[in-house]
Amino acid sequence: MYRWVLLILLVMLGGLQYRLWLGEANLRQVWQLEEQIQAQQQTNQQLTERNRRLEAEVQNLKQGLTALEERARSEMGMIREGETFYQLIEPEPETPRR
């Protein structure tokens, strides 16, 4: 009698172990999904930070003329009326003669 109960319990334990390690939603798949979730959360955090910086830049451009002026100067080479523009040219390094 005890042997049959023990045998049934061992078969049930084997079936549960099979499902745990090799079944439809096994532990390996769960671990892989957890890694994917962590990677996605890190990507989301980076994108959220980028969006925050872009939003701050947009607000700065909408509210203040200094940011707009700085961008016009640095990216487009614009100057104000009455300003004098000086362009410094670096001399080319001398090449050694043979």
TrEMBL record:
Subcellular location: Cell inner membrane
Membrane-related topology note: Single-pass type II membrane protein
InterPro entries recorded: Cell_div_FtsB (IPR023081), FtsL/DivIC (IPR007060)
Periplasmic side: 23-98
General function of this protein: Essential cell division protein. May link together the upstream cell division proteins, which are predominantly cytoplasmic, with the downstream cell division proteins, which are predominantly periplasmic.
PANTHER family, sorted: CELL DIVISION PROTEIN FTSB (PTHR37485:SF1)
Full protein name: Cell division protein FtsB
Gene (name only): ftsB
